[in-house]
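ok so i was messing around last nite and threw this chain in just to see what happens. nothing serious, just curious
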Amino acid sequence: MAEHGKLNTAVLGAGLIGIDLIERIQRSPLLHCGLVVGRDSHTRGLEKAASMGCSTASGGIGALNESGQSFDIVFDASNAASHAEHWAKLQSTDATLIDLTPSRIGTMVVPTINGTSTLSHRHINLVSCGGQASVPILNALSQHYRPAYIEVVTTGASHSAGRATRLNLDEYIDTTQEAVRTFTNCEDVKVMTNLSPAKPAPPFRVSMTLLVANAEADKVRSLVDAAAEEVRRFSPGFSVVSCRTDEGRISIAVTVTATGSRIPRYAGNLGIINAAAVLLAEKRAQSRFAA
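result:
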């Protein structure tokens, strides 16, 4: 545990998502950013992290293990292909690993659904940004209806997708589909994703379509609004922009704008998963301090 009653954390990855994550950790009264690790010592991300007052290191997971620090929480903001190695090298430590990559390893967590019940797990997977934006809505609807089919289409600005995101598009789709199936009990699920080069850059948008018999428009809207309000408690840029029920079809669209100062407002895809990660870390800190 870090000084001043905060949990000591490390961030693996110094891309856009890592830099926003650092800012959120620094704002937290319960978390301390003890180290930021990147691949190359000359990357712009590590330079930014150092300018924010963080200790930095290059060389990946090896540098973290050789830092001499003990970490309560490690945030993996690198890429899905590297995550299995990261967990293998951290499993023997006391650290909790919060995975922001779509690796499909670890316990899938969506804060408004199972965020509290997973406090005992040391390996947490946050699905994907599309999963964090869609699953709360889809889960709420599936508690009252039995969708025969669910389709999720995510659209993000090209500039919000870094190298790791582009390398992980297949994993992103597979992991998001698996999370939708898990949290809705609907087997027929399709996820698609688009990167938009439009200027000005559009906000992160998630469109959802459900085929549902006997859905009532007022009831659907009430369920969607209640689920959205829960998400806004930790991700205030989350907004329902449309909700229609018509002849066995429910169509919903949400947008997410980023609220941090280190990433552009259109990068809501990064903002929502980082907000979820820090929320879970703070819940763990509260549980630790209360023990």
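not much to say yet. The mean pLDDT is 93.
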